[in-house]
């Protein structure tokens, strides 16, 4: 799933390539992807792309200027969504709705544009055309951006909900932008168990967690921004210490990276660095054994 660094990089890529160009048309190929009906997709035709940014893990492309009433294409890429920029499209004829990966296509006046795609059969990519990003339910509920908070605010947010630290870190209403992958990395750098309870963290542990969050996310943004959209996924994977590295040696201590599996996701951690050498119970395997 694209997280804060990748969405920031996609926004930067659009600022470089698409801002200043005029939209020819917006085509909704997967009808279920568009969650709004007013303004209609035709509203962006003839409007200049004036900005590209993000709200947490939501990508925001702005059409039109403030004095004419901008229209925002706000997109949550979900688990398998992505943005593909095209220098040109093979044909000007509109795409037909079907079972392909393309959910939304934006054609620009110079023949270029971008596709919002989603792999797999489970379709969760969500696109919204709105006058104000706050009209998007997921955006209106976001907590402060993970890279915009200071230690005092971070401490207040993290301790505002009692729970396992990984779940609190990835709660978008607590902090916006952190997902499954980077939370694994943050906890590894902070030397904390993903199951540590937030109400039992010491001030020193919270400060360590804050510094780890800042360093991991900032480093990932630095590595990602400037990359072509097609290269971002491999760039993301290349920087991981524990996430998606089950069975491989920890780059810090050499212990074997372990995994805990859940119904539709998993987490990775290093026992030596994070849990005092004690492996965490894999809930899925425990159920099978019983």
From TrEMBL:
Can the keyword Ribonucleoprotein be found in this entry's annotation? no
Q: Which cofactors are named for this entry? A: Zn(2+)
The record's EC number reads 3.2.2.23, 4.2.99.18
What residues does the Formamidopyrimidine-DNA glycosylase catalytic domain cover? 2-98
CDD domains registered for this protein in UniProt = BaFpgNei_N_1
The secretion signal range is none
Which domain of life, per UniProt? Bacteria
**Could you tell me which InterPro entries the record lists for this protein?**
FPG_cat, FPG_N, H2TH_FPG, Ribosomal_uS13-like_H2TH, Znf_DNA_glyclase/AP_lyase, Znf_FPG/IleRS
* Pfam assignment, any one: Fapy_DNA_glyco
Occurrences of domain FPG-type (ranges): 241-275
Single biological process term from Gene Ontology? base-excision repair
As its record notes, the protein acts as a catalyst of:
Hydrolysis of DNA containing ring-opened 7-methylguanine residues, releasing 2,6-diamino-4-hydroxy-5-(N-methyl)formamidopyrimidine
Q: Which UniProt keywords apply?
A: DNA damage, DNA repair, DNA-binding, Glycosidase, Hydrolase, Lyase, Metal-binding, Multifunctional enzyme, Zinc, Zinc-finger
| The protein's name | Formamidopyrimidine-DNA glycosylase
The GO molecular function terms of this record are: 8-oxo-7,8-dihydroguanine DNA N-glycosylase activity; class I DNA-(apurinic or apyrimidinic site) endonuclease activity; damaged DNA binding; zinc ion binding
Name the family.
Belongs to the FPG family.
């Amino acid at each position: 799933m694209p997280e804060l660094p990748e969405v920031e990089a996609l926004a930067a890529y659009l600022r470089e390539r698409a801002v200043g160009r005029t939209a020819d048309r917006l085509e909704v190929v997967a009808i279920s992807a568009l969650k709004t009906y007013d303004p209609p997709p035709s509203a962006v035709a003839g409007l200049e792309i004036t900005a590209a940014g993000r709200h947490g893990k939501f990508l925001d492309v702005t059409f039109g200027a403030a004095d004419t009433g901008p229209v925002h294409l706000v997109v949550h890429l979900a688990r398998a969504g992505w943005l593909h920029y095209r220098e040109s499209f093979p044909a000007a004829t509109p795409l037909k709705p079907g079972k392909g990966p393309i959910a939304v296509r934006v054609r620009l006046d110079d023949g270029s544009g971008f596709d919002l795609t989603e792999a797999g059969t489970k379709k969760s990519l969500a696109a919204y055309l709105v006058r104000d990003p706050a009209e998007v339910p997921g955006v209106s509920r976001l907590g402060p951006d993970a890279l915009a908070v200071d230690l005092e605010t971070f401490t207040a947010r993290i301790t505002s909900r009692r729970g396992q630290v990984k779940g609190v870190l990835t709660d978008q209403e607590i902090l916006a932008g952190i997902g499954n992958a980077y939370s694994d990395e943050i906890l590894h750098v902070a030397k904390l168990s993903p199951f540590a309870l937030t109400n039992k963290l010491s001030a020193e542990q919270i400060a360590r967690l804050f510094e780890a969050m800042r360093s991991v996310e900032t480093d990932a943004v630095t590595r990602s921004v400037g990359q072509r959209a097609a290269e971002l996924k491999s760039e993301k994977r290349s920087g991981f210490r524990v996430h998606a590295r089950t069975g491989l040696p920890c780059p810090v201590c050499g212990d074997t990276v372990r995994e805990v599996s859940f119904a539709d996701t998993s987490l990775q951690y290093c026992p030596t660095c994070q849990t005092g050498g004690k492996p965490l119970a894999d809930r899925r395997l425990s159920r099978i054994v019983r």
